[in-house]
Design a protein that fits this description.
This protein has 447 residues and is α+β, with helices and mostly antiparallel strands. It has ten helices and 20 strands. The strands form four sheets. Strands 2, 3, 5, 10, 12, 14, 16, 17 and 19 form a nine-stranded mixed β-sheet that branches. Helix 4 crosses helix 5.
């Protein structure tokens, strides 16, 4: 009896595994952040008051024109600043990107139902820079060279003095920045400013600007975005990836809205998924009056379904600042403490996508960790029709009724999500059969 029970359990487990596999379909395409112009990517690793911020942008042009000015809540020592690689953010982006999966209808005759499923200036001597700063009420609290960046930590008494000093030292500060800068100074925030050190960049051999990381402690779980909007040419795209312990992250001062997901779409979307997702996102932004932050992914880092990319390794997570992952035991550790099996990752990833400008996002972004560990992903489905022989009543019904109705629903869904013209969509689906619309009043009474 025990052997039979064990065999039954194994068979049941096998069937469940196969069913789970078929449910997730085949991953065929993704919509990563590279689809969107003027986009920046930020990773926020957060536990308690400890935050590690990884910042990347799509700056294009002469690196001598690059500079960044970021409000930070506290003084930063040299060891709190780090330069990492773009490949790390690319991996995180691919892992969490909206994805397309496909299914294939089975033979209807088999009676099996598939589950649906800034300008650089000549350098000045440090003493001259210090004197100039002091005269304007600016304090250079620290000066570091980290990787290919020259970094200053500044504080100031007045916003106009700070802006004047930044302009005199080659930082492009747009008109109208003073009220924003002043609001940060009133919060006792400092300013992290960075330029590219051309000699160090040439020595290191990097052609692209690498992401900058800062680690600090602050009770505020927030991301300052207002300063970057002042001279922006139109709305900006921002992708925020949070890595936390307890669960999903959401904004507290703006609505966090789940992007539409789970829809079935026509087959031709397989080769047009990027265009679909761009237009769908544009439509959702307008639907929410341009004032929402969109949730695109929320998932336990231990697994994914389907996987648009492999989950991040412990080493990659540590590089992004996940400080609470325990170090692996060394081979000479006592046997009682050595870890034999890999330990689950206590990491939850949230991907947020926001299109913002001054008019619709007048405040910085503030966040909270909700503790909700329910998985969510932007996932879309295409189902390929059965194209074999139709030699049974079930197959005839499938070809004449079920498939045409499904295709019409897919067309309507696609038009609603994207705003595309429904007649243009129909033209892209060869051989589609029209479905006779039943007047609503015919469904009212049985007689």
């Amino acid at each position: 009896m025990k052997k039979h029970a064990l065999l039954f359990s194994l068979i049941t487990l096998l069937f469940l595994s196969q069913g789970s596999h078929s449910f997730c379909g085949f991953y065929v395409a993704k919509a990563d952040s590279k689809l969107f112009n003027q986009s920046s990517r930020v990773v926020m690793t957060r536990d308690g008051d400890r935050t590690v911020l990884t910042m990347s942008n799509d700056f294009k042009g002469d690196v001598r024109d690059f500079a960044v000015v970021i409000p930070v809540p506290t003084f930063l020592e040299r060891e709190q600043i780090h330069i990492t690689n773009n490949a790390l953010l690319d991996h995180l982006d691919s892992y969490s990107a909206p994805r397309l999966v496909e299914y294939f209808d089975e033979d209807p005759c088999m009676l099996r139902i598939m589950k649906r499923g800034m300008v650089a200036t000549a350098p000045m001597e440090d003493t001259e820079i210090q004197r100039q700063a002091e005269a304007l009420g600016v304090t250079i609290e620290a000066s570091y060279t980290v990787g290919e960046y020259d970094i200053l930590i500044l504080s100031a008494k007045q916003s106009n003095g700070l802006i004047t000093w930044l302009k005199q030292n080659g930082y492009r500060i747009p008109e109208g920045a003073e009220p924003v800068v002043n609001s940060y100074l009133k919060q006792d925030m400092r300013f992290f400013v960075a330029k590219v050190n051309l000699e160090e960049q040439a020595k290191l051999g990097f052609s692209n600007l690498r992401p900058i990381q800062v680690a600090f402690e602050s009770p505020k779980f927030m991301l300052p975005i207002r300063l970057g909007m002042i001279n922006a040419e139109g709305p900006q795209e921002l992708f925020i990836y949070t890595l936390t312990r307890k669960g999903r992250v959401e904004t507290t001062n703006y609505r966090t809205v789940k992007i539409p997901t789970g829809m079935e779409l026509p087959e031709f979307i397989k080769n047009n998924f990027g265009n679909f997702y761009q237009d769908m996102f544009n439509t959702q932004v307008e639907k929410e009056n341009r004032r929402a932050v969109f949730l695109e992914y929320a998932w336990d880092m231990n697994w994914c379904d389907p996987c648009a990319a492999d989950p991040l390794s412990d080493q990659e997570l540590k590089e992004l600042g996940v400080f609470w992952i325990p170090d692996p035991m060394l081979p000479n550790d006592p046997p009682t403490t050595r870890k034999i099996m890999p330990q689950p990752k206590e990491v939850f990833i949230t991907r947020l996508h926001v299109r913002y400008d001054q008019q619709h996002f007048p405040e910085d972004l503030f966040f909270q960790e909700t503790g909700d560990r329910q998985n969510f992903q932007a996932r879309y489905v295409i189902r390929h029709p059965w194209k074999g022989e139709t030699n049974c009543p079930a197959a005839e019904e499938y070809q004449e009724k079920i498939l045409p109705r499904r295709q019409q629903e897919e067309i309507k869904t696609l038009a609603t999500l994207t705003g595309w013209d429904i007649h243009s969509i129909r033209k892209k689906i060869p051989g589609i059969k029209p479905v006779e619309e039943v007047p609503w009043w015919k469904k009212l009474w049985d007689d």
